[in-house]
Hints:
Elements: H1 3-11, H2 15-37, H3 40-56, H4 67-85, H5 103-121, H6 125-136, H7 141-148, H8 152-174
Helix pairs in contact: 2-3, 2-4, 3-4, 4-7, 5-8, 6-7, 6-8, 7-8
Amino acid sequence: MGLAAAAADATGASVDQLTETYQAHYRSLLRLAALLLDDIASCEDVVQEAFIRVHAARRRVREPEKTLAYLRQTVVNLSRSTLRRRILGLRLLPKPMPDMASAEEGAYDALERDQLKTALRGLQRRQREVLVLRYYLDLTEAQVAEVLGISVGSVKAYGSRGLAALRTLMESGDD
């Protein structure tokens, strides 16, 4: 390891690295926040605040390659804080429909997405977080455990219970 590399390790993540991470992962972090909050304005605020906090603490990031993991964890934690502060339920903002082959397909897909979002909100907080991180972001159980600060066994338990509850909620919504 050269002197320049040792100096970079001693100072944590660089501003350039954070800028590159921001450009590459902003949208995925915004989608993560949207699955936990489902209010676009709050999602944007949470993601921006996460980048600000990680930027402010960049010198403490011992392993710069884990910057994205720190950002994900910060987004999850800030989403929790946002939800705790809310008294009233969240309002869904209409989202533009993607280009579809027919109006019927688009309406059906939107209905399924809305049903899934509603069912996700019906889960316990931890179950929802585990399912979103595991299946939406496609993280491993170990990565989910690290982001949430829980054991891998807890991730498996929350995931299993969450899927069972989600299945029940989705089936009851078909009636």
